[in-house]
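Section 3.1: Structural characterization of target chains.
Under the original work plan, the team committed to producing a structural model for every single-chain target entering the pipeline before any wet-lab resources were allocated. The record below documents one such target. The sequence was received from the expression subgroup and is listed exactly as submitted; it comprises 373 residues.
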Amino acid sequence: MKRLYIIIFFGLIFICNPAVHAVVPGEIISQPADSEIAYNWFYYVPTTIDKNVPIFILINLDEGGIGYDYNDKTEDARAMAGHRKSRAESYYYVLIKPAIPRDLDSSRQHCEIFGVAFDKIVFDKNIAPFFQRPDEKVILMIERMKSILRSEGYRVKEKVMLEGFSSGAMFAHRFALIHPERVQAVSSGQSGGTLILPLKQFNGVPLNWPVGINDFESLVGKPFNEEVYKNIPHYIYVGDQDVNTMVYHYYPKNDWWEHFYTYDEIEYILNTFGSTPPVVLKKQSEYLQNLGFNYTFKLYNNESTGPGEHGTYCRVSRFMRLAFHVSWFHEIFRKAAGNGNFVECVLVSRKTDSKESLINLHGKSAVPPTNPC
């Protein structure tokens, strides 16, 4: 009887505390915000992982919905973790899916705090602490995940993989700039239409965040580690019809967008690198390659175009399904884990219907290549 009471007691503790600090392979585990980590997050440990083989943690940073309600953000994160767990099973990585907030700053007129895009405002100590430095909160998730896994006998790699599309790609790219010593590889799709150049100036023009890193040390509190960052493999991809995005869509129509990029910064990007994301990302990637940065650029050509099912910002991005269902993801990260080099051949999974017109996050359609190699 005493033993039964003990079982019931600990069972009640488990029920009352939904955060499970344990490995439960094959289940998405919820981690509600607590006194250490301010954001809700989820993790998934595949059933296919061998404890004797060192494993990577992958952080998925796609935003999901574009609303401001944090409960909705949390449910979006839960759903997206569910969509990605099969990839974790197939490619043997532990998945972390944060719920990163987005809100309007009531203290500033027309000013949005877009945490997952990691814009300059998140460094501002005058905004609510909940929205400041989301990268630091993600680091706490990573460290807790490592602790949980190691306590269960798993061997875990120190560096993590990052993946994201659109604003999620912006976060992945910018996280790697700030914490290169923590990152093994980055896969970023569309990236808001432009990259932060890991340069203080370009042709004599100072480049401040989010165009470059001239003011990096004053924002981050430490110098930029170019030596480590140069060796991180980056896979930059975009669809050739993905032309309606952050830098270009609102300029010069909306004053509130200026807290992301000033008009001068937008003019600089347009005049220096081009007027559409495919052109800009290609030119930026090639320029950085020539400077010795480990960037690979891939343009996905399309056979048809058309609006998304729910308008320009399609809540469920069919274009992202293209990213989910191509095996370059595993091959790139496998190569990155080995020698830091990308494979040149992009292989489409047999599960992908090459005839299906896939809609990207910004309302254009893309068709996966039938014979990409």
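The longest helix spans residues 70-91.
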